[in-house]
C-alpha cells in the first residue's frame, strides 16, 4: 500500500510503532505489519538501535524489541502525529465504534475455537466444514462493518489503512482453506484486530 502524501508517516516511525503494537518481531513479521521492504526495515532498525530505542534479542525470545526509551519516544511521536493532523476527534469517534464491535469479534473467535456438542463446550477440531462455513459467514458480515471503522481511521491517519488490507487478507486466506488465518497465526484476523486495538490505545494515550 502506498501512503498518501497528506499526513504521511515516515518509515522510521512506522517501524518503531509496529514494535509498540505487535511486540517483539522478526524482520518478516515487521514486513507483514508495515508493508515495508525488509531491507528498509532493517536499515531503520539499525538507526533506531543506534539511538537506543530498539534492541535485538537472541534465543527463545529472539527478535527486535522496544526499549523503555523507545516506548517513550513512540508515545511522543505518535501524539505529535495525531495533533499535527488534527485527528484526535476523528480517531476517538472511530475508537468508540471499534469498542462496540470488539465484543462481537471476541465471541466469533470463541465460536471458531470451541463448539457446543451435546451441551458440552469442546475444542473445534474443524472436522465439520458446514459449521466452519457458518462461522466464516459471520466473520464476513462482521468484516463489512469493521471495514467502515477502518475507513474512518485511515481517513484521519493514513497509516491505519494497513489494517484494512491485513484484515481482508486474513479473511480471504481463511475462506480459501488456510484456517490458521482466523485465530491461530501471527497474521490471523484475531491477531491483526488485537494489534489495531493496541494501536488505537497507544495513539490516543489510553490504557486498557
Notes on the protein architecture:
The chain has 208 residues and is mostly helical. The chain folds into 2 domains: 11-83, Orthogonal Bundle (Arc Repressor Mutant, subunit A), CATH 1.10.10.10; 87-204, no CATH class. Helix content is 67%, strand content 8%. The protein has helices spanning 11-22, 27-34, 38-50, 68-84, 88-113, 129-156, 161-175, 180-183, 189-204; strands at residues 54-57, 63-66, 114-117, 120-123. The strands form 2 sheets. A two-stranded antiparallel sheet has the order 1-2. A two-stranded antiparallel ribbon has the order 3-4. It is globular and about 60 Å long.
> How many angstroms separate the termini?
29 Å
- Name the poorly predicted regions: 1-8
Rg calc: 18 Å
Strand order of the largest sheet: 1-2
Q: Largest sheet, if any? A: 2 strands, antiparallel
Number of domains: 2
Q: Which word captures the global form?
A: globular
State which percent range the strand residues make up: 5-15%
Listing every helix as H and every strand as E from the N terminus to the C terminus, the arrangement reads: HHHEEHHEEHHHH
Number of strands: 4
Average pLDDT taken over every residue: 93
Structural class: mainly alpha
Helix fraction, binned, reads 55-70%
> How large is the count of helical segments?
9
Amino acid at each position: 500500500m502506498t501512503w498518501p502524501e497528506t499526513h504521511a508517516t515516515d518509515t522510521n516511525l512506522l517501524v518503531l510503532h509496529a514494535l509498540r503494537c505487535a511486540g517483539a518481531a522478526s524482520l518478516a513479521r515487521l514486513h507483514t505489519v508495515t508493508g515495508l521492504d525488509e531491507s528498509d526495515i532493517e536499515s531503520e532498525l539499525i538507526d533506531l538501535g543506534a539511538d537506543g530505542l530498539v534492541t535485538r534479542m537472541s534465543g527463545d525470545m529472539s527478535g527486535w524489541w522496544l526499549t523503555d526509551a523507545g516506548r517513550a519516544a513512540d508515545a511522543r511521536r505518535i501524539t505529535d502525529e495525531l495533533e499535527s493532523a488534527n485527528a484526535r476527534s476523528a480517531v476517538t469517534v472511530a475508537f468508540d465504534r471499534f469498542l462496540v464491535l470488539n465484543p462481537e469479534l471476541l465471541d466469533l473467535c470463541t465460536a471458531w475455537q470451541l463448539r457446543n456438542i451435546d451441551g458440552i463446550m469442546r475444542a473445534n477440531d474443524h472436522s465439520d466444514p458446514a459449521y466452519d462455513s457458518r462461522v466464516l459467514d459471520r466473520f464476513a458480515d462482521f468484516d463489512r462493518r469493521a471495514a467502515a471503522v477502518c475507513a474512518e481511521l485511515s481517513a484521519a491517519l493514513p497509516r491505519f489503512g494497513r489494517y484494512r488490507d491485513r484484515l481482508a487478507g486474513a479473511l480471504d486466506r481463511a475462506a480459501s482453506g488456510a484456517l490458521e488465518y482466523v485465530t491461530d497465526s501471527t497474521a490471523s484476523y484475531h491477531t491483526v484486530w488485537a494489534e489495531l486495538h493496541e494501536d488505537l490505545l497507544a495513539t490516543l494515550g489510553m490504557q486498557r
